[in-house]
């Protein structure tokens, strides 16, 4: 298949790697030039473009793709990309990432979405199945032996308590995707404070798991 992915962050790249491994043609659309890194996935076609701009989608020949995946961290962008893909380019299948569960009701056929994937809801379900305070728990493998979805539940006396997310020095190949706190699913923003007892969910390569433990103040 020919698959176009809007958003080349941790989620978009993980999806792209899996599809490339399956011998599919993948195009990654990314508006942030700092995130455009062809060496990260050399078999994918990288395009520096805002996926909400109709002219840029036309230049990328979006109509020639079988599937469009709106995988950015912004629900508004994912909705616009989905609508354009379906109404302007007649893409057969549109899959959209839902970052904030409160927006799930928007992600339906009227907005061009065939399949909505609520990342926080999925992660919350997985975390409920495997929670161990003060240790790193692998929840899902994105690419065999290379990248995993992992969860760390912080102890009540964590040294990170009160610090904003931006102060956590994560290793290069790790990204914080969700904080689960008291039944709430939080899409982390740079100034959001971390609290003891938080369940932190990351996408991380196997090689940096020990570094990740150190970054959140855990001793293996």
UniProtKB/TrEMBL annotation:
Q: Which residues form the RCK N-terminal domain?
A: 1-117
- Its domain of life reads Bacteria
Which Pfam families does the protein's record reference? TrkA_C, TrkA_N
Is Transport there in the keyword field? yes
Listed A to Z, the keywords are: Ion transport, Transport
Record-linked Gene3D superfamilies: NAD(P)-binding Rossmann-like Domain, Regulator of K+ conductance, C-terminal domain
Domain RCK C-terminal stretches: 137-218
Put simply, this protein is called TrkA family potassium uptake protein
Name its species.
Rhodococcus olei
């Amino acid at each position: 298949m020919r698959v176009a992915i809007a958003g080349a962050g941790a989620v978009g790249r993980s999806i792209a790697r899996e599809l490339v491994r399956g011998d599919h043609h993948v195009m990654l659309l990314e508006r942030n030039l700092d995130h455009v890194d062809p060496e990260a996935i050399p078999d994918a076609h990288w395009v520096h473009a805002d996926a909400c701009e109709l002219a840029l989608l036309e230049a990328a020949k979006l109509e020639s793709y079988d599937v469009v995946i709106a995988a950015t961290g912004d629900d508004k962008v994912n909705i616009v990309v989905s609508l354009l893909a379906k109404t302007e380019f007649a893409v057969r299948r549109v899959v959209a990432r839902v970052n904030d569960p409160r927006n799930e009701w928007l992600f339906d056929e009227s907005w061009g979405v065939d399949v909505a994937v609520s990342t926080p809801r999925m992660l919350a379900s997985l975390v409920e199945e495997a929670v161990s305070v003060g240790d790193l728990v692998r929840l899902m493998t994105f690419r065999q032996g290379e990248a995993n979805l992992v969860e760390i539940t912080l102890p009540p006396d964590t040294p990170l308590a009160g610090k904003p997310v931006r102060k956590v020095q994560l290793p290069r190949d790790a990204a914080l995707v969700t904080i689960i706190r008291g039944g709430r699913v939080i899409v982390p923003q740079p100034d959001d404070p971390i609290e003891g007892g938080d369940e932190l969910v990351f996408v991380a390569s196997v090689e940096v798991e020990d570094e990740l433990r150190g970054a959140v103040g855990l001793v293996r």
